[in-house]
Amino acid sequence: MPDIFGILNIGKGALIAQQRAIDVNAHNIANANTEGYCRQRVNFSTQPPINFSPGQMGTGVKAAEIERIYDRFISLQLSQVNQALGQGEAEKSGLQEVEMIFDENSGYGLSRALSDFWNAWQDLANEPAGEGERIVLIAKTKVLTNTFNRIASQLTGLQKDMDVNIKGTVEEINLIARQVADLNQQISAAEVGNQNANDFRDQRDLLLKQLSFLIGARYFETDTGKVTVLVGGGRPLVEDGLTWELSTETNGAGHQDVVWVDQDGNKVNLNAEIEGGKVKGWLEVRDSYVSRYLNQLDTLANGLITEVNNLHQVGFGLNGSTGNNFFEGSSAFDIQLSSQIEADPNLIAASETLDGIPGDNRNALAIAELQNQLIFSGGRATFDDYYNSLIGKTGTESKEAQTNYEHSSAMIAQLESYRDSVSGVSLDEEMVNLVKFQHAYDATAKLISTIDELLNTVISMV
Amino acid sequence: MRVSNRQIMDTITKNLFQNEKRLLELQNKISSGKRINRPSDDPLGMKRVLDYRKLLAQIKQYKKNIAYGETWLKDTESVLGSVSDLLRRAKEIAVYQATGTSTAQTREIAAQEVKNLYDQIIQLANSKWKGNFIFAGYQTKTNLPPFSRDEDYNATYQGDTGKIEVIVGEGNKVTINLHGQEVFSQEVDIFLTLKELKESLENNDPEMIGSLVEEIDKAFNQIDRYRAEVGARINRLESAENYWNNFNLNIEKALSDTEDADLTEVMTDLLSQQAVYQASLATTARIIQPSLIDFLR
Predict the structure, then answer these.
(1) Which terminus has fewer CB within 10 Å in chain B: N or C?
(2) What pLDDT digit, counting tens, does each position of B207-258 carry?
(3) Which residue, among B3, B7, B29, B287, would best test binding to A if mutated, counting the most A CBs under 10 Å from its CB?
């Protein structure tokens, strides 16, 4: 009924509505720096009008809803690039570690140790009966075997670090999955009651982003506002309010496999099916890159052991001994100088014949000349060629990982900038809105005091 | 386009980090003096660096081997020089004592001198260099010297015919020793010749003495031939050394070109990067400060 009290009602409604707006304004300003926060806005609408003469009369304003400003497609894209970013970051830091382990830039890596080893054989060839030359050869050999052992065990150590990372992260993922399931319930409960669960959605988006970053999880939203999260080849991690457990299991090589546990408690190995994220990166570093480097290092060590031993066995030591191995072991881990030779340098077989002792240096020459023989890669590479290619490979692959990482971080930066452009809080804008709502509030207050005066006038008439 | 505060801050920090990262890389290049500080800086370059370093280590060793062989051969050369001097003296004795002016008495004295010459040559044939008998084949370090004689001046050789080689390049070896048999006993048996000279002097047999002159000449030529051979080997070693010296320079240059930072270039980059960094700091300071709040009163 449009009368003077009706105007008072409009005033009351307007005061409340402007106040709501300032409330939301305050919430925006307060969360300007909250990660994942999307700015909110109060949508006003008019109250239902009343049919009257000369026409419909409006009855004021109401705060219809609090809307979260957000672009669903950027969120999806962000989660995809986050998979790549997580993987890139894990591979980049793992492979940089590999470069440090080989330590070739300092000039004191395996390459130097190999050169010194061959040169010590040439020195022995010059003085086949020399005690000093024999002792130096033993010392240089030990530097070489120690360098092999050190690199091999540090590379294995790096693989173990990856295991620790994977194990810890799987636990973190389970925790996040449970939080997502809880938020699913809260959001759906709120939205069924026609509320906008804006802040809950922000929190859930942030958690989903982490899941993509960590394990390359994919997700989609159902009609009820709940998300289903999938990992490794479409296996559910979160569905509705339920979660599935990920866990780890020690495999034959002593490393941690990522397994998904179904409802009956059956374990499924996910290693090959994880699509991205840090876990994928760590698995790649451990099972693909580092294990390949280790294999090649083993091939090199094994070749050295076999070739040197073959020649050494047919030669003769200074004391007439023959048939002795120079190296023990079969891989980069266990290559060692023969303990007998370490105890008695005279066993080093520099001579090709028994009669030629002490001056016969032909066996030492033959071993020294192994340096230039094409032994690897089907007779196309020397020891040095093979090793230097390996170092080149570690460099190339590390560089690739760095490039991939930088590419995904540039993509992320762009997408996040776009996301912030849509959803981020602008303090200037909030200030403008604050001024706008304040003025509306002031004007409404003025309206009410005017009504008051009108009522006074009416009352004083009585 | 709408611009949020987060967007501004993120862009600023990202750009400042980027600038700082470039500055750090340049500083790293300057302080290490190297263009490649880890293999991923230039994987192919790194591989070349390793190849060059290996070559340099090989060359160093080849030069060491060459120096070893050269001193061995030079020692051999000077020993052969002394042997040849002693043989020249033996020839003089033979020529002089074959003539009629010599008597049984002078021949007796000369026989004494020849015995001395014989023992001196034995001594030279037993020369050692760095503790190795140089004319013993592979029997370089033994208690038995390669040559010895009995009371009747019969010489025996206890060495062998081993050839000692040094590596002077990839697949390239040079023999550095001459064994006693080839130098002293093959073709002309020097010790036998001297023994015959001694005996014919003692027997006062000018005809026999005269007939030995030719034999001694042959012995002299034999030693000369081996001196020439040693000289040729020394030449071979010297030319190998020259080759490696030149090659070494080339490789060192190539290594430096691949590995070392061009300081002028890096310094220029650093200066321009510093300018960029300062400009970004200055603009950041201007953008961050004012907001609408400063103007609302």
Answers:
(1) C
(2) 999 999 999 999 999 999 999 999 999 999 999 999 999 999 999 999 999 9
(3) B7
| pLDDT score of A2 more than 80 | no
- In sequence order, what are the residues at sequence separation of 6 or more whose Cβ sits closer than 8 angstroms to the Cβ of residue A376? A299, A300, A303, A382, A383, A385, A386
CA distance B164 to B177: 6
* Overall CATH class of domain B52-253: mainly alpha
Q: Are A300 and A332 in contact (CB under 8 A)?
A: yes
A368 sits in which H/E element? helix A362-368
B33 in reach of chain A (CB within 8 A) = no
- With CA atoms as reference, the chain A residue closest to B294 would be A428
Cβ contact (<8 Å) for A355 and B138?
Answer: yes
Question: Does the distance separating the beta carbons of B65 and A413 come in below 8 Å?
Answer: no
User: Does the structure show a pLDDT above 80 at B155?
Assistant: yes
Are B53 and A107 a contacting pair at CB < 8 A? yes
For residue A356, give the nearest of A113, A59, A128 by alpha carbon: A128
Q: Which amino acid is at A80?
A: Q
Amino acid at A129: A
Tell me the HSE value of A288 on the side-chain side, using a 13 A CA sphere.
Answer: 13
Instruction: Report which of A217, A258, A255 is spatially closest to residue A235, judged by C-alpha positions.
Output: A217
Which residues of chain B lie closer than 8 angstroms to A33, CB-CB? 6
Residues 225-284 of B with CB under 8 A from A: none
C-alpha to C-alpha distance for A429 and B214, rounded to whole angstroms: 121
Q: What is the mean pLDDT of residues A36-46?
A: 94
| Cis bond upstream, residue A358 (ω within 30) | yes
Burial class from Cβ neighbours inside 10 Å (0-12, 13-18, 19+) for residue A332 reads buried
Whether residue A323 contacts residue A313, with contact meaning beta carbons closer than 8 Å, is answered with yes
* A410, amino acid identity: A
Chain A residues with beta carbon closer than 8 angstroms to that of B38:
96, 99-100, 105, 395, 398
Residues B223-257 as b/e (b if ≥16 CB within 10 A, e otherwise) read beebbebbeebbebbeebbeebeeebeebeeebee
Does the CA dihedral B261-B267-B268-B273 come out positive or negative? positive
Query: What is the C-alpha to C-alpha distance for residues B170 and A382, in angstroms, rounded to an integer?
Result: 12
pTM of the model: 0.88
What sign does the dihedral A156-A162-A163-A165 (CA atoms) show? positive
As a whole number of Å, the end-to-end CA separation of chain B is 27
Residue A1 has pLDDT above 80, yes or no: no
Are A309 and A370 within 8 A, CB to CB?
Answer: no
| Alpha helices (H) in chain B, listed in sequence order | 5-32, 43-98, 104-125, 180, 190-202, 206-259, 263-288, 292-295
Instruction: Express each pLDDT in A101-152 by its tens digit.
Output: 999 988 889 999 999 999 999 999 999 999 999 999 999 999 999 999 999 9
